[in-house]
């Protein structure tokens, strides 16, 4: 009985330790940088993008059905269209020669109806371009290997298990300890085996 109580207490301590940790590790979405006029807000995500990558842009508060976004980091202007969940959405490709650092995205709202008050309104957001990494093709050929060449060359980019793997291992260990304790208790309750 005492061993079972100890096992459950240990499992409770492990669970109490992991729950706040997982909440702290949860990523929150990028906050809107803000619109200057008429309640227009622009959100850019992910907050960091490598050269050749794509940034998702979401515009809220624009009464029109189109908008245009520009940045010195983009290959070309981003054309916004209506999003399924409301607002406007665009994807912008980051130029392969964009300098690393912060880049401002400027969006101008284009209204179909001039009386809405948001025609010509602007909003800004920030996109951070990371350093120039290994160049990746835009449309790689499906030649097999599944990316194994990157790992064979030693550029796999993984350095070992992280916090998520450690937390998962602790949870599995706690579950195993509880299972062993329950099995031992059940065996003691049945008594010695008779032939």
Structure, explained:
- With 195 residues, the protein is of the alpha+beta class.
- The chain is built from 3 helices and 8 strands.
- It has an 8-stranded mixed sheet, with no helix packed on it.
- Helix 1 (2-25) runs antiparallel to helix 3.
- It is elongated, with a radius of gyration of 27 Å.
- Residues 19-37 have low confidence and may be disordered.
Short summary:
The chain has 195 residues and is an alpha+beta fold. Helices cover 29% and strands 25% of the residues. It has helices spanning 2-25, 148-152, 163-190; strands at residues 41-45, 48-49, 54-60, 66-70, 78-82, 88-93, 101-110, 122-129.
Tag the structure with descriptive keywords.
single chain, 195 residues, alpha+beta, eight-stranded mixed β-sheet, 25% strand
Tell me roughly what share of residues is in helical segments: 25-40%
Name the helix and strand elements from N-terminus to C-terminus, one letter apiece. HEEEEEEEEHH
Kindly report how far apart the N and C termini lie. 27 Å
Strand proportion: 15-25%
Low-pLDDT parts are: 19-37
Strand order of the largest sheet: 1-3-6-5-4-7-8-2
Main beta sheet: strand number and arrangement?
A: 8 strands, mixed
Mean pLDDT: 74
Q: Oligomer, anyone?
A: single chain
Q: Which structural class is indicated by helix and strand composition?
A: alpha+beta
The gyration radius over C-alpha positions equals 27 Å
